[in-house]
């Protein structure tokens, strides 16, 4: 069974810093990996989807990379802003979807 | 924009009640999913459906059933609610390509269910 781990569980940074969130998974046989954002008490908003054949995807200040062979993905956030404060989740699609427990990000003004 | 709508944001029910959670999507997606989210455990898949009247068990189907009579609607049923089913429930949908769900999952806003 696929296991997805996100480290760190919580992260606090000053505004303007660049930061990296990590996601690791145990089974490299995946179709895709998706990064989500979740605000408190809300549903999940998709940020980026990387297919298994891709190495990275970019959207604005966000860049996600995928190294399938090592079972790792990173989400890079450039020039962080207080509005980026949220929980970030990664989800791996193998035979079904498996989610990490998330990294809670706080960007301090 | 894809819209996934869950009928209730908050529900309070009593132990033993039958509970229906409804989810509707407006983008003609084949795949629909029900998850529950608990602190420290993340999202766990309860059931999913690849087509009308089709359903597959996820990781934690015990105590739940589902219904998919129409493509746009996926219902989660708690036959006899228990306190350990107090949780945040999230519905999602996605397109299906070539028999495999390669596409983005879109989520509803969630239903926070409390069973007393």
Task: Describe what you observe in this structure.
The model of chain A has no long low-confidence stretch (mean pLDDT 94). In chain A, 36% of the residues are buried. In chain A, the strands form two sheets. In chain A, strands 2, 4, 5, 9, 10 and 11 form a six-stranded mixed sheet that branches. In chain A, strands 1-3-8-7-6 form a five-stranded antiparallel sheet, with no helix packed on it. Chain A has 109 residues and is mostly beta strands. Chain A has no helices and eleven strands. In chain A, strand 9 and strand 10 form a beta hairpin. The termini of chain A are far apart. In chain B, strands 2, 4, 5, 6, 9, 10 and 11 form a seven-stranded mixed sheet that branches. The mean pLDDT of chain B is 91. In chain B, a hairpin with a 3-residue loop joins strand 4 and strand 5. Helices cover 0% and strands 52% of the residues of chain B. The N and C termini of chain B lie far apart (37 Å). Chain B is globular, with a radius of gyration of 13 Å. By secondary structure, chain B is mainly beta. The chains are: A mainly beta (109), B mainly beta (116). Chains A and B meet through strand 4, strand 5 and strand 9 of A and strand 5 and strand 10 of B.
